[in-house]
């Protein structure tokens, strides 16, 4: 049985397991810290936390604020991605590759890449790959040169729809030509029942 999003009950059940697993791990970490420091109060936050689950399954951006790794740094330290694009840049790289860890495996449904509006053609050779172990990456976006996109930010961002066959944890973006790589914002969307008050990032219907 599927719902209006085309997701089966089993896939929604996976989302619930992932949610429970995340919070149980947090509680366990707090308890270990409380035991080692002799202060049970450190565990209170995890033990008394309430997770609000909404009635709707929405697309949720889980990349907001995530740290990431770039293959080289030019001029300044990379900044975490904001919830909304700014049209500027968050990093600038001459050996172009960026990789970030979602901290858990998700059924990724889409990635939206917001480019710097200054020199947007520099990202035209963009390719995107996903991995669950940071070793074996599978390409999900790598068009031929004739179809290389030139994209910007906001409504001109590049939207990549993904037909996921397995949960993935790591996202890598790289260029396939020697040029500068400077992006503004990357948004990674998954389905979730988390309410807006317990979300990280924005939601889409």
Automatic annotation (TrEMBL):
InterPro entries tied to this protein: Galactose-bd-like_sf (IPR008979)
Superkingdom assignment: Bacteria
SUPFAM superfamilies, A to Z: Galactose-binding domain-like
Protein name: F5/8 type C domain-containing protein
Organism in which the protein naturally occurs: Paraburkholderia bryophila
